Every structure is written in C-alpha cells, then in structure tokens.
C-alpha cells in the first residue's frame, strides 16, 4: 500500500533553506511538483545552485511526493503491449511510429509558434531593404503573406521571410538579426500586462518576458508573473532606443508590472521567428518579446 501524499511547502524540502525557498517562490516555483518534474540542469540554472544540489533537491521532492519509478526493462515490456491512436494526420502518425502510444505521455515541442506569441495589434520594428518599419505584427504578416505565401504549420500558419531583420537580444546585447518566418495561430484567451512606465503588453500565457531577480535576467512565462515583478526593457522610448543602438550601446531600464489579467480574445496571435537569440524588440514602447 502506497504512502499517502501529504501537503508541504518548499521550506520542508531537505536542502532548501529560507533564502533558496524565497528565490524559488519569486520565479514561480511554488508547487513542489514543478520541482519534481524539473531536470537538475534547469533547476540549477534558474535557482543559481550547483547541479549536484539541484539533483538532490529533486530526489528529495520526488521521495516526499511518493513518486514511483520503473526500470527501463519494465517500461519496454509495457510499451510492447501498448496500442497506438491516430492523430488524424498520416504524416504525423508515420513520424510517431503508427500514432500516439497509449499508456504513455507524448510531448510535442516546437522551436517556434508553440503558443509563444503576441496579440495582432502589437507594434513591431523591423528592417527591410535598409528601411526601418514600425507597424503591427498582423500588418507585417499580411504584407509578407502576399509576397512569399503562407503555409500550414503545427496549430497555425507560417510565412517565410527573406531579407528581413529585427532588433534581437543576443548575449545581453541588442543586435540586428535575421528573422526567418512569421508565425500565427488562433487562441481563445491572452494576458494583458500593464506597467508603471506605461507599457501595455498583450501576449499568450507561455510567452516569456525577462524578469529581473537579484540583478540577473531570468526569462519567465507570462502566466507566472505577478503585480510588482520587475521586467527589463530596452529603453523608455524608441527615440532613445535608436540613439543607443547607433552608438552601439545596449542600455536597459527596469519597469514594474502594475496589473496583469486574462481576457477573452478569440483571434490570431503572432510571432517573429528569430533563430539567433529568439527575442525581438516591439511594442508601443520598446519591449523584449
């Protein structure tokens, strides 16, 4: 008979002191189950601890949650008896070896799209033919859709791009980087984040923003942010941002979240696909997306 699972908080975990518990809570790791399913490398990076300590903490949490483990042989024997369910796509079924396996969890991961998008009226800055453009990401999508065509991808569509650059965030600096696609998909709800400096950021729950924790940047999913959190932004306005860029200076300032709420949307959200750095500058006021 298995041991009954009991509720406990972060401070009950062996190896987690008050300071580390506060740090984990600040970045949204309030549920021990989140730690239990983390990898040692991920937990070490986000909590700024050694991988050995992270592995020990994960082990202790799994033990406290009474999460069982199976041998590779047991898993293999069970998988031989499992059936497969079609996804509705013949090509995807073939990639999965005949469909989604029963008695197992199949995870789909995409380097872009994947729910990490901004609202259609988000202003984006991009460069084409050495000309600087400020327009909504929806208008940019529709323009290049007519020029290069649109293709089905994952839960939405992509438009391939040629000769288009954005202001990307690479190794702590703002640089002009190539963007290879614009992606869009339809969602039912989005988040609106309003800040002390006047930003209104509309994005999906999974889109990450750079939160400032102990003077270090940690990229956090929007749904984990809360009122009072500090995010890092490129500049107070585009005039200053472009001046700094011309001087080859990457200056950043802090902005505090004043309000965050979920709203009904039922429309398309969009994302620039930036292979180098995966981040672009946009918004009515300069923001790192």
What does this structure look like?
- It is a single chain.
- With 289 residues, the chain is an alpha+beta fold.
- It folds into 3 domains: 10-64, Orthogonal Bundle (DNA polymerase, domain 1); 72-101, no CATH class; 118-288, Beta Complex (Endonuclease - Pi-scei, Chain A, domain 1), CATH 2.170.16.10.
- The protein is 25% helix and 34% strand.
- The chain is built from 8 helices and 17 strands.
- The chain has helices at residues 18-26, 32-36, 40-47, 51-64, 72-81, 90-95, 137-148, 238-246; strands at 84-85, 100-101, 118-119, 123-128, 131-136, 151-153, 156-160, 164-170, 173-178, 181-195, 200-203, 208-213, 216-221, 230-233, 253-273, 281-282, 287-288.
- Strands 3, 6, 7, 10, 11, 14 and 15 form a 7-stranded antiparallel beta sheet that branches.
- Helix 3 crosses helix 4 (51-64).
- It is globular and about 60 Å long.
- The relative contact order is 0.13.
- The model is unreliable at 1-5 and 110-114 (pLDDT under 50).
């Amino acid at each position: 008979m298995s041991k009954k699972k009991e509720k406990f908080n972060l401070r009950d975990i062996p190896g987690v002191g008050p300071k580390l518990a506060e740090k984990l809570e600040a970045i949204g790791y309030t549920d021990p189950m989140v730690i239990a399913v983390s990898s040692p490398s991920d937990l070490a990076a986000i909590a700024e601890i050694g991988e050995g300590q992270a592995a020990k903490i994960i082990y202790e949490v799994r033990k406290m949650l009474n999460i069982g483990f199976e041998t590779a042989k047991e898993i293999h024997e069970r998988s031989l008896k499992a059936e497969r369910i079609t996804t509705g796509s013949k090509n995807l079924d073939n990639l999965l070896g005949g469909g989604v396996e029963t008695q197992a969890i199949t995870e789909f991961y995409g380097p872009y799209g994947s729910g990490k998008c901004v609202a259609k009226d988000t202003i984006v800055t991009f460069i084409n033919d050495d000309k600087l453009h400020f327009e909504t990401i929806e208008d940019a999508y529709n323009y290049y859709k007519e020029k290069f065509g649109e293709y089905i991808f994952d839960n939405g569509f992509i438009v391939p791009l040629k000769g288009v650059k954005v202001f990307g965030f690479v190794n702590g600096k703002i640089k002009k980087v190539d963007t290879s696609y614009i992606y869009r998909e339809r969602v039912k709800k989005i988040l609106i984040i309003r800040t002390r400096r006047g930003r209104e950021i509309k994005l999906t729950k999974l889109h990450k923003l750079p939160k400032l924790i102990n003077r270090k940047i940690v990229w956090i999913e929007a749904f984990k942010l809360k009122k009072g959190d500090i995010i890092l932004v490129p500049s107070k306005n585009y005039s200053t941002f472009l001046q700094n860029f011309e001087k080859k200076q990457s200056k950043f300032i802090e902005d505090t979240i004043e309000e965050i709420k979920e709203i009904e949307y039922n429309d398309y959200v969009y994302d620039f696909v930036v292979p180098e750095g995966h981040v672009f500058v946009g918004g009515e006021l300069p923001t790192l997306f």
